[in-house]
Design goal:
The chain has 227 residues and is an alpha/beta fold. 22% of the residues lie in helices and 15% in strands.
């Protein structure tokens, strides 16, 4: 199988954080940096550093287990908009995507353009993916707004949006474990800076170095030094 890892599965938010990107956000340059500055200053005042975000935007535990994939072919990229390049290297494989979003369709924008929110659905349509599993992190269970909180609701939304022939090729689940390295043919690390806190960039980039991940498409950015 192929393993896709979106950093927002660990760089998340607490309950009742109403400016959190998990409620919905575009993916523009402003959303990747300036919007996070605004969140930090809202909590810590003008010029606040990223540490002001920590209570509302924690780095959930468990990501350290990803280090076990050292030695597996790995790639790192800014967003899932670049996933098509990765899938063309390994066409037709089953994909496990550990993520805070299913990425199967987007209700806004051009549905035919590859974007972070619809790459998996387009790849299924194009048969670049065999079967697709979206695995939500355990912390979704306690946050009502997340896709992974009510899987029955999210599953019904997905089935309504996707053609019926794709339903049997899609699985949604919420669980904390990761597949053993022997079962993973390649890993894609995705930063998703519109959704992941700059306070966690160093951990993400250190992980990419541990996995010797090769840059794919647009590389990740380092926002750890407060502008």
């Amino acid at each position: 199988m192929l393993l896709s890892v979106d950093w927002d599965a660990w760089s998340g938010c607490a309950e009742y954080v109403f400016d959190a990107p998990i409620w919905g956000t575009p993916d523009r340059e402003h959303d990747r940096v300036r919007r996070w500055q605004e969140r930090a200053e809202r909590r810590g005042g003008p010029g606040a550093g990223w540490d002001a975000l920590q209570d509302d935007y924690p780095l959930y535990p468990g990501w350290e287990a990803l280090r076990a994939y050292a030695g597996v072919p790995a790639f790192v990229t800014l967003s899932h908009a670049q996933a098509r390049e990765w899938l063309h290297l390994y066409p037709g494989r089953d994909v496990l995507n550990v993520d805070s979003h299913h990425d199967l369709y987007s209700s806004s924008g051009d549905p035919a353009r590859w974007r972070p929110g619809n790459w998996a659905g387009l790849a299924l349509h194009a048969d670049l993916i065999g079967t697709y599993t979206a695995r939500y992190p355990e912390w979704h269970e306690g946050l009502l707004v997340t896709e992974g909180h009510d899987l029955d609701r999210t599953r019904a939304e997905v089935h309504a949006a996707l053609p019926a022939p794709l339903h049997d090729r899609v699985r949604l689940e919420r669980r904390p474990d990761l597949p053993p390295a022997r079962d993973v043919e390649a890993v894609l690390l995705v930063q998703s800076p519109s959704w992941s806190s700059p306070a966690h960039d160093r951990s993400f980039l250190d992980l990419a170095r541990t996995l010797n991940a090769a840059p794919l498409g647009t590389p990740p950015i380092d926002r750890s030094a407060r502008p």
